[in-house]
Amino acid sequence: MMNTKGDFWQMIWDSNANVIVSLYAEEKSQPDVPDFWPAENQILNCGGFFISLIDENFDSDYVYRDFSLRSIEGNRELKVKLISCSYWPDTCSPVKVSFDIINKVRDLKTNRPIVVHDLFGGHRAAIFCALYTMHEQIEIEGVLNVYELARIYHLKRPGIWRCYNDLLFLYRCAQVLLNKYKQSSGIHDSSSALPI
Fold this sequence. Notes:
The protein has helices at about 5-15, 95-105, 125-140, 145-155, 165-185; strands at about 20, 45, 50-60, 60-70, 75-85, 115. It is an alpha/beta fold. A hairpin with a 5-residue loop joins strand 4 (about 60-70) and strand 5 (about 75-85). InterPro entries: Prot-tyrosine_phosphatase-like, Protein-Tyr_Phosphatase, PTP_cat, Tyr_Pase_cat, Tyr_Pase_dom. This is Tyrosine-protein phosphatase domain-containing protein.
């Protein structure tokens, strides 16, 4: 994994991403999971640019790190925020827990790419991205299509959904989002008012 550290940061630089979401904090206790960022007072050389840690803040559930990526020539700088979640819920967790980190990321109000990664091939990242997309879709379009969203993710990366519970979890989250959207927009469920 260490030999891909430069590739990871090159992707951040090339895509001009300013937010990284890290969903593997639970595994950090494993010695074979090294940090891919520089420590305080350390500069990481990634070929065409240098990376330095500017700030690091901890709270009970999240670690926030701010980085500066500066070109060797010094004519370009990219500020990046990394949010590490000390937990990432699995499909049996309460839905609210899943939306906590999504709301933290949405609060950053970025219009640039967000990089999301996990340790085990993207399953957790896919759930995060699907929930983030659902949140945006309901706010912008006022509709949700969980089936189509899950299908698109599957077509892009077959096997990303490990089991039925993954999809069921997306539907549970969609129900919470729809209820929240109805409440905030004053829409009332009229199903009980239908004639019998």
